[in-house]
Structure formats: structure tokens, C-alpha cells
Amino acid sequence: MPPTNLDKTLSSILASRLSQGRLRRLTIPSATSIDFSSNSYLSLSSHPAVKAAYISLLTSHLQSDSPQPGHTLGSGGSRLLDGNSAFAEDLERQIADFHGAEAGLLFNSGFEANTGLFACVPQKGDVIVYDELIHASVHDGMRLSRAQRIPFAHNKVYDAASSASEHGESKYPSLDALLQSLTNGPQGGDVKSGKTNIFIAVEGIYSMDGDAAPLRQIVDCVEKKLPQGNGYIIVDEAHSTGILGPQGRGLACQLGLQDRIWARVHTFGKAMGCSGAIVLCSSPARNYLINYARSFIYTTAMSFPSLASIHTTYNFLASGRADPLIKQLYSLIHHMHSLLADVIRRRNPSPELFRVNPEVPQSPILPLFTNRARSLAQHCQERGFTVRPIVAPTVPMGQDRVRVCLHAGNRVEEVEGLCRAVEEWVVDTVKSKL
């Protein structure tokens, strides 16, 4: 079949993206390469005890001669039709209890959870204020919403405070200044009286910089600026689930703020090692999402194997068996940051060529900032380490980096080998410029 005019147009657009070095491609990870790229921070997807428990649960439920509703290979439909089950509802209650929430609603992915939540809950006349680095799924949800949306500077709660990450001066105001402007603006009367709802969207851990939200400051600021209680904080805990807080309950639980957060989105495709997500909220909010969240209503419910994997990993966390993995993970984080800081002290590269954040990372995500991200990533890949270059527009212009993700399953010698590869590249690159 000859290419159509549309095919030619699409090919031209892709060629333009290729010329800018921004073309995305699907790749298959090498079976022999060492993983420093995936979000499987606790390595649960390959943990022998987790796999054994999962297989046992599947076998006991799927091999029954008369399987209960919901204990089949596929769910058979959306949860509002034929895809619901007692197992799914019990799992929601189990997860909500674990995170100290009143209720929870499962979604097929974190993307669907955020798009469904932000598209339907904020009403016309409401305002969503969001961290400028909030995830793309939140942006897509906000675009479907009837509410006004306004960004604030990344992790900047007050004007006197600087951003926790080193991505330059922001063009956006602090959260405090933004809320003040809303109170003094044209709709200030409705904001002060509590008639206008203000939704504040942040992440627990930001996926590119690996820094944590200053959540306690955010909560205090919102409660002070909106004393009528019309400030509703939503925290995307995708990258903090499993690694922060007691037994991996997340950032809100780590700080004891779960009762002051209106909604939390916990996803299972990262440290939890499976897939899916849950919105933790009040019972009325759960019922509202069931009725109005289109990404919940109009999609086939998760299959029993997916639900079983979530059940298995949560049991593993709740039993305390993941605690040694979390401890091992943070030991590797400290070790790698120390090694990289030592490379910078000894080799003294220009900050444009290579730098890391001076503070010890708050998460397993370590960005290696460099204006030659593709070159550094390729050098490490050729030596058997899977890392990825992250460049604009995924990150702000001038903030290109190689994104390194550590895992509890990484060995100390693997971390040291990656750091040696990075140092080799720094030395070779500096020499080539002389």
C-alpha cells in the first residue's frame, strides 16, 4: 500500500523531531546489562519470596473448578458492569488502611488515576495550583477540567526559600505568593469565604530530579492562607510509595500529614514492582469518582492476576520484609553520591560538563547533570550499564541529565563500576577539549 498524504505528513513531523535529537524509540533492555534505569527501586518484581507468594496466590484462586467472580484470568468488563469483585474491594480497604486513609479507589494506572481525578473533581470556578514540574498525567487531567490552572515555582513555598533542586530561577511565583494573589484578585471574595475551592497539586518525589516536596511547609502554608478549609492538597506519591515512611507508606505518612492531605495517588509500577494505582480519599470522594471519573468508568477493570500482584507486594511491605531492602537501597544511595562527589573533587569538571546535586539524594533517583547527556549515557551503556539520557523538552532547557535509578538489588560493586565509567568519561571528555 503506497503512503498516503497523511503518512507523508506524519513522516515529515517525525523527521523534524529526529533532526532536533528528540525522536523517541522503543528499545528492549539487554538481558546482560546492569539496570540503573528502571523505577523498580526495591527490586520486588524479581524477589524470590514475592514471586513465590504471587504464584501461590494465583494457583489457589485460578485453578479452582468453580472460580469465584473476579477470580478468572480476565475481569470481563468495567467495574460498574461485570468487572468488580469482593477481592478488589477488599484490596482497596487493605491499601487504604495501610496508608491511613478513609477509602480508596483502584485505577489501571497512575496516568488514569491522575487524569480521572483532576478532570472531574475541580468544578467551574475552582482553581488548581500546581508545581511547575508536576507529571504529564496531571496536566492532561487539568486540561479536561473546567477549573482555572496556575503553576507555582518548583518546591518553592515562600519567596525567601529557594527551590530544593538546582534547575535555575523559575518564572513562576512561590506557592505563598500565588495563594495571596488569588485572595486579593478578582475572585478574592469567593476564595476568602471558602466558596471557591483551591486544589494544590504536588508530587511526593519528583521523577527527574529525585527531590521530595517540602510537604509540611506546603500544608502549613495552605492552611494559613485558606483558613476556611477550601484548600485541597493532592499528592502524587508515585515515586515515594514503598521507599518513604514506615514500611514504605509514602511521604505523607512519613511526616504524619495523612489526615491533612485531601487525596493521595499511590502507584504500583515503581517500587511496588507491579502495575496499577489507587486514589486515597474520603468515602464521598470515592463515590464521586465512581460516578464521574471517565478513566475509571469507561475502561476494563484490572484482571485478577494484576490485583493479586498488588495484594502480594502490599503484604510483603506490611509484614516488614521489605524493610531490609529499603535500608540497603538508602545505603547504596549514600555510597554512590559520595563516590560521584569524590569524582568532582578530584577531576574538577566544569559544572556544564558534569555535576551532581551537593546534597545527599532524598530518593533513589540521582540526576547526573551534563550538557552532553547522550554522550555520557552511551559511554555507560557500552560498558554494560543501562542508564538513559533525559533532555529537553522532557526537562527544562539547560537541565539535560543522565537519570540514574538505584535499586535494592544492585550490588555495591555494580555501583562502583558505574561510577568508574562516569569518571572515565569525565577524564576523556576533558582531555578531548584540551
TrEMBL record:
Q: Which Gene3D superfamilies match?
A: Aspartate Aminotransferase, domain 1, Type I PLP-dependent aspartate aminotransferase-like (Major domain)
Q: Which organism is it from?
A: Trichoderma longibrachiatum ATCC 18648
Q: Which GO terms describe its molecular function?
A: pyridoxal phosphate binding; transferase activity
Coiled-coil regions listed in the entry: none
Q: Which residues form the Aminotransferase class I/classII large domain?
A: 34-421
Transmembrane parts of this sequence: none
UniProt entry tagged with the keyword Transferase: yes
List GO BP terms, alphabetically: biotin biosynthetic process
Task: Return any one Pfam family short name.
Answer: Aminotran_1_2
Sorted keywords for this record are: Pyridoxal phosphate, Transferase
The identity of this protein, by name, is PLP-dependent transferase
Family statement drawn from the similarity comment of this UniProt entry: Belongs to the class-II pyridoxal-phosphate-dependent aminotransferase family. BioF subfamily.
Q: Which domain of life is it from?
A: Eukaryota
Q: Does this entry carry the keyword Transferase?
A: yes
Q: Which cofactor does it need?
A: pyridoxal 5'-phosphate
